[in-house]
Amino acid sequence: MIGRLALRLAVAAVLLFLLAPLVVVVVASFSDGPVMAFPPASYTTRWYAAISDEFWQAAWRSSVLATVSMVVAVVVGTPAGITLARGEFRGKAAISAFCLSPLMVPALVLAVASYQLSVVMFDLTGTTYAGSFGGLVLGHIALTIPFVIRAVIVGHTHLDASLEEAARGLGAGPFQTLRLVTLPQLGPSILSGGVFAFAASFEDLPISLFLGGGDAPTLPVQIYSTVEFNLGADLMAISSVIIAASFAVLFILERVVGVEKVINAGKGAH
Amino acid sequence: MSMTIRVEPSGSPAATGERRAGRASGASSGNPSGLATALALAPALIVLAYVFALPIVIMGSYSLRPFSGLAQAGPGWTLANYGKFFGDLFYWGIVADTLLLGAIVVAISAVIAYPPAYFLARTTSRWRSLLVFIVISPLLISVIIRNLGWIPLLGRNGLVNTVILGLGLSSEPLALLNNFTGVVIGLVHALVPFMILSLMIAIRRIGVDLEEAATGLGAGPFERFRLIVLPLSKSGLLAGCLIVFTLSISAFTTVAMMGGKRVLLMATYAEQQVRSGLNYPVGATIAMVLLALTALFSLSALRLLRERR
Known about the structure:
Chain B: It is a multi-pass membrane protein. Chain B: One of its GO terms (cellular component) is plasma membrane. The structure holds two protein chains of two kinds. Chain A has a single domain (45-266), classed as MetI-like fold (Orthogonal Bundle). Chain A is 75% helix and 0% strand. Chain A is built from twelve helices and no strands. Chain A has helices spanning 2-28, 46-49, 53-86, 92-100, 107-125, 133-156, 161-169, 174-203, 206-211, 219-227, 233-256, 259-266. The longest helix of chain A has 34 residues, at 53-86. The radius of gyration of chain A is 22 Å and the shape is globular. Chain B is mainly alpha-helical. Chain B has one domain: MetI-like (MetI-like fold, Orthogonal Bundle). Helices cover 72% and strands 0% of the residues of chain B. The radius of gyration of chain B is 24 Å and the shape is globular. Chains A and B meet through helix 1, helix 3, helix 4, helix 5 and helix 6 of A and helix 1, helix 2, helix 4, helix 5 and helix 6 of B.
């Protein structure tokens, strides 16, 4: 009995540890005093009205960037993933390894590398894409494409091959089979890959730090540059808005496919 | 959340994909033609060649150029950057600190992940899905926002120091932020869900009857853990350790946020050299060494997991 109680206490402590910073962000966003004095002595909601346009614009910029990077990843990664999962062709193992290898490369390394490419391109062409939205997209899709490819490959292994055979047997052509049988079955996997792609782009700091312009930062860059000198409750307020939005998405995912499934299909990198 | 979901020990996506794909294609109805294969792969390959392979090649070439002034690299090729890196104890210190950070984060994560992993693998409580949700949902919430929440907690006047001072554990506030300790706390928090998931999957595969038999033979909870759960979940532990270690030594965001730009590890030092120091060759060299280290650990992880299956 004591063993069971000890186990439960330990589990509760770890779960508390996991939730603590999220709770702190939300509580601190209602603080009526300095953020660093925690817990706050008194509470107010005024910081939500005081969130600066800079923060809203950065949040919007990050959302658009993550959406574009996710869409590109789904469009480019889905056919590649299906082909790598089912085809038999020369060089498949090498191509597969190449497509998934960005998942093992530290984001900071990708950031330095993309930045140095932009420097070389500037020397060659006289124009630079560093600092532009297009440059950020180029940097971020190296991050997002492999998530979709991997989720599709993993999802494809759980497909019921007999359904495709049945469709072919009933006279469906390869494209009809793909559209009516394969893709709908892969839907949850593509969704998982897309969610991870979006999250990876949305939370990225290093690539945006190197490729983004100083006057149009993404939300993580904005947070990073604010936190050292100007940590205020308004920063906690915009972060709370993001936490709330994230949980709304997570809740919908939980209802539609199950968050555990999404994580299992997409985990392994950060 | 369904319990029937198949889960692979993490860390071996490529291996799993390949092996399973062989089986899947045997069962599916015929191979697509060579042209269809090429067309389906081409967009991904072309894009990744430009946004991934080419940048790495350029970075590699920067690491082989002499430094010739701020934001410049001189003509000609040289190994001097690597020579300087490996000949200077300062750089060895940064590498050692980075690896030490990985080892500490792995050790703490493994210890605190076992209780929730065991509980979630065994419980039949109707709260299970909520608890799993609490464990894994942080993974999909921006890591920089999770870091942010630690700052008011760990500061000099923060809750943790208030409690420590209140309990008389220390006579003055502890420095828990903007230093190595802060980075460890932030990384354990960011990465422990991976360890919990990895262990949970491994423990789920251990038959409950083994533990029941051990109990019947008089084993207490601690002995059951030492003699059954720990040895039989070793593959999950290993997978979790390798993932957490690789992600720890790769980490930039959490190190920068929790270390307050004062903790110099490989990732933060490379960033500093390129962005502030404008020393492109040295920055590229550090990034290349970091890339080689993470590749080494990722590939050994793949190999280990393949052998164990």
